[in-house]
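Try this one yourself first.
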């Protein structure tokens, strides 16, 4: 999992260059994917083809962008392999935003016999530089949007990390209709981050986390109807050795915090899909999670901030699917999610070590109805309408003593209502268009802080309207062209809804040629991002 035992999701080691497909599951999916799964992005590493290949790719562009990639894969007897190595460097649009990383990803699958296989994922990333230009005020952006914040330059802010991952999945078809899946993984991560303030402004930790689990799938007839049953468990453990040092104008100063942070989680789940009728199925799921946090203070000059805290929760879900014809699927779903604060979100706003004991886990119940399907082979559509009741939503805030450092607190209650639609139309065999629209009406129902009461206000950081359109042309001779447009409405940048980020529309164009010459394939391409040179803020700090 790219999600760590404490609930943090990392993207440093995700290798898009070797992704076979990316599946997005909207809404709570806690039964199979864990307590914090308010949504799932499932990325599958591609397998090697039967015929071995070697591929080289070089891309370059504005703002010092360069990326080199080398990939190989194939089949050698019972072993299927895919390995990808890439290096990327970027100066960045803004000052103090240089970044560099090297990424290796591999997938090895060994067919033990006709009924069992072992898959291994070996992954490593080294990012010695990822500078942070910080946030600017609206006035500063209008004056010079490419500038870095003065404090970020003074304290030389940014981060460096290295991470190595090894994961294994064993599958065994025990009998017709019965499958056993065993998984096990290990991750080593070293991280250092310089922040734009003096006291404790340099964060460093050495993290090791590991886990495993088992899942049993049984497909059979029950009361004369098809039934698919799954059960299993997950066990995960995280160990952090965390230090904080004073940041003396970009140099590491004296130690100001040292603590060992441990996170242990245990989860058990059940899920059953029962065919009530030829075209109606019922899905029921239940998950139980127990997550424990423990801190051992090793810096006792300011007192002992050791402590522990734990959370546990049941997360049930139910869904009904009706397919009146093969090309139409109508569904309804009720699902719950349970999200504990992460070790980062637990940071104490007083500046001391230990936990922010005032924080509670966030819980939510999601109600969703939708329809998806196709009209012939040329039109595919999807419409989803949902409402989500959230209690103790985890929200970021800042304190003057630690400028730009983010802490977290709970909002009492909030409601999220939304509509998501998409349609893909095959206009011609070579020409298709995709249109998507998202409407988000997210509001605080009950939320008060020392700054005021925000009941009824819109939750900041989320635009109410988002629209995306793409036209794709692929000629049989190898030429292709993609043109897309994204429109985003204004959004609020604070709880009081007094600061806003303006709406914007951006467009991208990309075209290229795929030519095959014997055993060789050549694919030159050219892309223009922000084709019409619009000014917009793609990242807004709340």
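Now uncover the answer:
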């Amino acid at each position: 999992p790219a999600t760590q035992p404490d609930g943090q999701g990392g993207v440093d080691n995700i290798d898009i260059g070797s992704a076979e497909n990316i599946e997005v599951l909207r809404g709570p999916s806690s039964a199979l994917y864990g307590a914090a799964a308010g949504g799932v992005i499932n990325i599958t590493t591609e397998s090697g083809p039967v015929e071995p290949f070697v591929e080289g790719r070089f891309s370059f562009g504005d703002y010092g962008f360069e990326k080199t990639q080398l990939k190989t894969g194939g089949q050698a007897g019972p072993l299927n392999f895919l390995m990808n190595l890439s290096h990327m460097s970027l100066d960045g649009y803004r000052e103090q935003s240089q970044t560099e990383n090297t990424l290796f990803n591999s997938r090895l699958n060994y067919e033990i016999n006709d009924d069992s296989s072992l898959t291994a994922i070996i992954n490593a990333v080294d990012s010695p530089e990822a500078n942070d230009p910080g946030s600017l005020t609206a006035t500063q952006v209008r004056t010079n949007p490419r500038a870095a914040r003065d404090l970020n330059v003074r304290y030389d802010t940014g981060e460096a990390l290295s991470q190595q991952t090894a994961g294994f999945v064993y599958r065994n078809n025990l009998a017709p209709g019965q499958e056993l899946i065993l998984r096990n993984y290990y991750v080593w991560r070293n991280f250092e981050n310089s922040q734009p303030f003096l006291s404790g402004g340099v964060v460093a930790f050495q993290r090791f986390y590991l886990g495993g689990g088992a899942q049993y799938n049984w497909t059979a007839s029950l009361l004369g109807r098809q039934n698919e049953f799954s059960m299993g468990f997950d066990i995960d453990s995280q160990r952090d050795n965390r230090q904080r040092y004073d940041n003396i104008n970009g140099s590491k100063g004296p130690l100001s915090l040292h603590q060992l942070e441990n996170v242990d989680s245990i989860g058990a789940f059940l899920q059953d899909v029962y065919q009530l009728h030829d075209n109606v199925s019922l899905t029921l799921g239940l998950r139980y999670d127990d997550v424990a946090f423990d801190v051992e203070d090793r810096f006792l000059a300011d007192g002992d901030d050791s402590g522990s805290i734990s959370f546990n929760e049941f997360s049930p879900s139910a869904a009904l699917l009706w397919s009146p014809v093969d090309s139409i699927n109508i569904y309804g779903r009720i699902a719950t999610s349970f999200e504990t604060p992460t070790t980062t979100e637990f940071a104490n706003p007083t500046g001391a070590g230990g936990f922010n004991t005032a924080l509670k886990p966030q819980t939510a119940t999601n109600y969703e109805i939708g329809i998806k399907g196709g009209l012939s082979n040329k039109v595919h559509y999807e419409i989803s309408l949902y409402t989500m009741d959230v209690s103790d939503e985890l929200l970021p805030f800042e304190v003057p003593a630690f400028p730009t450092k983010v802490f977290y607190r709970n909002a009492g209650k909030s409601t999220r209502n939304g509509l998501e639609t998409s349609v893909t139309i095959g206009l011609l065999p070579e020409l298709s268009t995709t249109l998507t629209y998202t409407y988000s009406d997210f509001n605080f129902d009950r939320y008060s802080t020392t700054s005021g009461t925000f009941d009824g206000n819109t939750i900041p950081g989320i635009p109410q309207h988002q629209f995306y359109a793409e036209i794709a042309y692929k000629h049989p001779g190898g030429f292709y062209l993609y043109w897309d447009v994204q429109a985003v409405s204004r959004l609020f940048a604070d709880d009081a809804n007094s600061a806003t980020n303006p709406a914007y529309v951006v467009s991208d164009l990309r075209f290229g040629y795929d030519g095959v010459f014997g055993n060789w394939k050549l694919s030159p391409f050219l892309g223009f991002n922000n084709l019409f040179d619009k000014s917009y803020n793609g990242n807004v700090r709340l």
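Discussion: Helices lie at 30-33, 138-143, 150-154. The longest strand covers residues 251-277.
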